[in-house]
Design a protein that fits this description.
Blueprint: H1 3-29, H2 32-38, H3 42-54, H4 60-80
Helix pairs in contact: 2-4
Length: 84
């Protein structure tokens, strides 16, 4: 085993465990509609963090797709929001 990959593995496992824990708390005690809409942003955030860690550049088509995902999530949230 090498140190750097082991550290990345431990950090990834910790992040995934915390994510599942936060998801369960959100489902039990939070606004499920907002949680579902916010879950669409996770792949975009993950890709940005991965590109930073791997020292790669994200292309224009990635940002175009990310914008479409974000707009779709906002549209989902607005269309299912209850009127006050």
């Amino acid at each position: 085993f090498e140190l750097q990959p082991t550290i990345y593995l431990v950090l990834a496992a910790f992040a995934m465990g915390m994510g599942y824990g936060a998801w369960n708390i959100g489902i039990l005690h939070g606004n499920v509609t907002l949680l579902a809409a916010a879950s669409y942003f996770i792949p975009v955030f993950s890709a940005v963090v991965s590109a930073f860690i791997l020292s790669t550049h994200l292309t224009f088509s990635f940002w175009q797709g990310a914008l479409m995902v974000c707009l779709g999530a906002l549209l989902c949230w607005v269309s299912t929001k209850t009127k006050a």
